[in-house]
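From the pipeline queue, job 12 of 40. The input is one protein chain; the requested action is below.

Action: predict structure.
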Amino acid sequence: MPKQKRATSRSTVNAKSRRIPAKAGVTRLRQPTSCRAGAQGKTQTKEETQSVPPREDKSPEHQDLIKYTGGCHCGAVRFEVWASKSLHVFDCNCSICTKKQNRHFIVPASRFHLLKGAESLTTYTFQTRMAKHTFCKICGVQSFYTPRSNPDGYGVAPHCLDKGEEEPVITLEYFNGNEWESSMAQHKTIKDMSKL
């Protein structure tokens, strides 16, 4: 296994960063010390995200960004997302992210486009009902969702991106979701990640 390089991070208390190649495989670098039990969850079958036609050109908003495509395992859900070559990926240790091994990078809603599969999506919510954990109801894969931290954007799973000519460079940041409110109050940049 190649040596992992340290990356400079703008993260705050309770977060560590490591730079890893995107194709090195997803490995657990640190196990969470605790996991808060979640409240009874709820599955919603009506999905608010609508399929839209793919964009063919780069708008001024997408300058200096790369168009990635991706989707779920069975192919029923497909999307495109505009993001930089360097992806800042969060590895949260809250109850649901631990169970799902949910690693994601955040983009503004206008940089994410569902290409197909709105009818194949279902959404799970729990506790505050702020986060919308969207997944394919055929294969069960969550390739994107609406995070509680950024309800105006999307959290996209980098491991659900298609292989392409432009491979992203991933910086992984641990986020202490077990102490969500205090971690959010201390984090200086996460809320801005869904803004243009």
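Job complete. Residues 1-56 have pLDDT under 50 and may be disordered.
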